[in-house]
Write the structure tokens for this entry.
Amino acid sequence: MPLDPLPVDATEPSTACCPPLAGAPMTAEDAARTARSLKALADPARLRLLSIIAAHAGGEACVCDLTEPLGLSQPTVSHHLKVLTEAGFVTREKRGVWAYYTLAPAAVQELTAHLGTHLLHSRNA
Amino acid sequence: MPLDPLPVDATEPSTACCPPLAGAPMTAEDAARTARSLKALADPARLRLLSIIAAHAGGEACVCDLTEPLGLSQPTVSHHLKVLTEAGFVTREKRGVWAYYTLAPAAVQELTAHLGTHLLHSRNA
């Protein structure tokens, strides 16, 4: 007895013959959002700050630990940390007189996975 | 008979007790180079161009295929493609009257792997 055909939802694009493209083009909105995240990272001081926080125990560092290794003033370091916080790469918590910054690894992972999905050509596509 | 002790090279840091930090801080030179790569990507038009090239058959597209989807002039598209070429994300080949751009996936892979190495905290570190 032949099996019933699978129900077809006419509102969805057919994927019967071909797998979806692994490297689907980015939409304008997606590209604008991704470019904003990349711009937040695309600064040598911010990359070094984030990598120092990542290397600290627990992925957390006090702002007081971050000025000396970079040789920058505390206001400059605070400005860069504000950009990283607003972009979601770190979270900030005030304890006593110091602010502590914790890595938000999901933000880095999502960005790198997103670049991999859209900017790498699938040989099977 | 006791085994001879392993030779100790005093010029190498000891890793006997601890694995190396997965999230080692970036050096100033590394951060400067990585920021340059990220800046080349951190533009909505360039992200869309690269994702369109990645989605094309063979990861290659003619410049003539790239102006219409973005709604930008050919000089503007050519400028963005030049930035991507100089950053190593695509390679350019002239055939007849048109230039063809091919994705250089290793550049994207190296960048995302590098961010993962330095910006993600290892829970075991």
Observations:
- The helical segments of chain B are 28-41, 44-55, 67-70, 74-86, 105-119.
- Chain B touches chain A at residues 21, 23-26, 28, 31-32, 34-35, 38-39, 41-45, 47-48, 50-59, 69, 89, 103, 105, 108-109, 111-112, 115-116, 118-121, 125 (CB under 8 Å).
- Residues 1-22 of chain B have pLDDT under 50 and may be disordered.
